[in-house]
Amino acid sequence: MRPEPKELYRAAIELAESGQPVFPCWSAGEEAKRPLTRSGFKNASTDRDVIRRWWKTHGSAAIGIPTGVAWDVLDVDTKNEVDGRVHLNRLKELGLLDGCKKVVHTPSGGWHLYFLATPGVTNKTSSSLGLDVRGAGGYVLAPPSYIETPHYAGGYEAIGDTEGSTDE
User: Fold this and answer.
1) Prediction pTM value
2) Looking at residue 105, what is its pLDDT?
C-alpha cells in the first residue's frame, strides 16, 4: 500500500535526525528509483528545511539514502531469473552476515541487509549471483518508500533490527 506523503516526509526527517542524509527519488515509471535531484545522492541532506522543500514539491517521492555514510547494504536481488537468496545460508555459515543490523524487504521480492558503514567499502555488482554491495558512492531506497516500475510495484518494508546477528 502506497504511504501518504506525510508518512514519507516524517520517515525522511527521522532518518536525517539519526544522522543519515536523504534525498528524493522518482517513485513511478521508467525513472522509478532514480534521484530527483540534479546530483543525486551527492545532494543528500540532513537539513530539515531542505528535506521539507523536497517533500513539499515531490510528496510521493521515494526516500533515497546514500550508502557508505551510516550504512553499507547487501542488496539481495530476486529478478531477471536470478535469486540471490540462495547464497544467504552459505554467507551465514562463513560468518559474513554477522554484522547485519537491519533487514528490509524490497518490492521485487529481495532484501536489503544493512551493516554499519565501513571505510573503504565501495560498490560491487554481481548480477549473475543476485548480490550487490552498496557502499561509498552508492544508494538504496529506504522504507516506507513505494515504487511502481514497468516490472513490479510495492513498498520497502523494514522487517526489523537484528542485534548484529542473523540467528534470530
Assistant:
1) 0.91
2) 95
